């Protein structure tokens, strides 16, 4: 597959001290759905605006379909942007909103309307062409904004937090719809979000950003299963962290030794941090034995419908979360009570090892 977008060492320095984006290199393939993910202020929107041409990079080069567009204005890039607030014209009909940019491209009235109708069909709003934005729900307005963005079939669609204005239920539904829209139109989507679940469920590839830089770039499942740093392990999903030292073939924590499978390229005795997911952590049945068993005591049990989040305390006082699905036969007496001694275990291949002592 060919790269549709190539960023080479892109930086944006707003001032000597404010660095929005710091030396980002990234290649996006034609037709991919890539998401820029990270907390507020990490440079996602700045990077997206530079791809769209709304902001000029301080350093670096941007190529679109092989052409250097670093200094090309937005309207001459084959890229379109969907803004967070949709920016629809209230005095125009839905059809007019979508056809608006087409007249400037020299399309006649009829052709523009036909193209608008086609784009509306794509987002499932064919019957709303003559209504005004005010007559639509939030989700429908969002779809109109999407239709307007794809009507010219740009090579790349840029979406900055496109679902953030919608309520939770609608957001879930729009995630799926946008994924389907991406499949239907076949153009490259680059989306920005701070919501890890949104990023994981919608994208082919996720670029996790940290302070203007790329922390990790990969397929959702690779990021989840092999986070490159505690930052990523903590931002995507939940992770238990324990301070440890390299020891023999594994690590030694204050609560006991753990075998690990990850290659650890550090000398014996070196400070490391181990991480493991709550849903990969088990509470052993009475009498059961397993690798990496650590004695613990139940500290808190929280019911969240689908299952339980059990917080346990290890011998040294460190707290560890254990997520477990509720068997439908679970008797009330089987729910562990605070204070109960238990043994937890994590399989060696489910343990991440990071160099150094990490405060997350
Ligand atoms: P995100 O979209 O990830 O929340 P932004 O790209 O908006 O982050 O911002 C990245 C950093 O650049 C932040 O520290 C922000 O304050 C700063 N920044 C963004 N836009 C400007 C601007 N126009 N002028 C000065 N600083 C800016
Ligand atoms: Mg932003």
Automatic annotation (TrEMBL):
SUPFAM superfamilies linked to this entry: MOP-like, P-loop containing nucleoside triphosphate hydrolases
Q: What is this protein called?
A: Spermidine/putrescine import ATP-binding protein PotA
Q: Which domain of life is it from?
A: Bacteria
User: What are the entry keywords?
Assistant: ATP-binding, Cell membrane, Membrane, Nucleotide-binding, Translocase, Transport
What is catalyzed by this enzyme? ATP + H2O + polyamine-[polyamine-binding protein]Side 1 = ADP + phosphate + polyamineSide 2 + [polyamine-binding protein]Side 1
Q: Tell me which residues make up the ABC transporter domain.
A: 5-236
Organism, scientific name: Aliigemmobacter aestuarii
Q: What does this protein do?
A: Part of the ABC transporter complex PotABCD involved in spermidine/putrescine import. Responsible for energy coupling to the transport system.
Which Gene Ontology terms cover its molecular function?
Answer: ABC-type polyamine transporter activity; ATP binding; ATP hydrolysis activity
Q: What is said about its interaction partners and assembly? A: The complex is composed of two ATP-binding proteins (PotA), two transmembrane proteins (PotB and PotC) and a solute-binding protein (PotD).
Query: What EC number(s) does this enzyme carry?
Result: 7.6.2.11
GO CC terms: ATP-binding cassette (ABC) transporter complex
